[in-house]
Amino acid sequence: MRHAGKVENQGSVRKLLPAFAIVSGLALATPAFASLGPPAPHFNGELGTADAVTLGVVEGVTEFLPVSSTGHLIVATSALDLESGQPLTDSAGKPLWHKPPSAKHPEGVPLTLKLAADTFTIVIQFGAIAAVALLYWAQLVSMFNGLLGRDTAGLRLLLNLFVAFLPAAVVGLLAHDWIETHLFSIPAVIAAQVGGAFFMWWAESWRTRQSQPAKQGMPAELSIELSALTVGQAAGIGALQCVALWPGTSRSMMTIVGGYFAGLDPRRSAEFSFLLGLVTLTAATAYKSWSGGAAMIAVFGWPHVLLGCAVATVTAALSVRFLVRWLSRHGLMLFVWYRLAFAVLLSGLLWAGLFK
Fold first, then answer.
1. How far apart are CA 121 and CA 138, in angstroms?
2. How many other CB atoms are found less than 10 A from the CB of residue 220?
3. Would you say residue 212 lies in a domain?
4. Is 206 helix (H, G, I), strand (E, B) or coil?
5. CA distance 257 to 253
6. Which residues contact 79 (CB under 8 A, 6 or more apart)?
7. Which residue range is the domain that position 74 belongs to?
8. How does strand 97-99 pair with strand 109-110?
9. Would residue 244 count as lying in a domain?
């Protein structure tokens, strides 16, 4: 068993080597990339290399842990002073647009440092997507073979992921502007951290009670395979994912708990959450890149975007490996206490006037 574990670990390390190489290469190449294309505008609080790395680490570490990457990124952008609402212009003094003037927006929506930073934190999710694709390549191949009629289990998994993705996709599109206007704030994150902590504590307690027969030598109740999920169970997980549209709640937390309720053990719940995240994050990142990516790159430049993505890839891969092993042994309670401590810290900083 030790030998098998050692081989698995060596394989995981080998998988991560390309991502480490990308990070190192981008860090070294940043000065060269910076000379390509038109110069970015200069303004107070411009994103630096250290900022890009910081946001990449925060995204990668928190994206798949049940602590809310969005909540942590809101805090990080505030701490890095990337929240200016002043309209930005290019080097020629022309306005940069988040949404150019159109029939829907006659006056347009000027691009601000805050909007550019918010887009940056979404776009670097490509790094987290790459990490899951790298670690769960076998499942992706299985689903592709399912489309070709060669893998029944892979086709069922693909169908369930699509069904679980739909609720959040619909609600997210309908409520996107309202959420960004009213819920992207430190107080909203604090409320979600506390509420999510108690919900997660209740869910973990419920799972523990359900698992008691297994400890007494009876068959475990929470042990079905991912391919055994029904469409209804997948839809239930997807409905819970909608709650995570409130920043600070955690998409990972809601889908892992949803997996508990559907009959999955912690490890399989986490794996379904990762694969669902692959679908959800790809859609959200592609949409945000299409709608505001060009303007964001005009402000921050390609080097910082690529560096943030690469750092997110490495840290997300390590975070995923950690979470699977931790949940298999200990469950979610560590993250309950972390969320409460994080909420207390944020409340103190907010009271001290360090956050808006």
1. 28
2. 12
3. yes
4. helix
5. 6
6. none
7. 47-351
8. antiparallel
9. yes
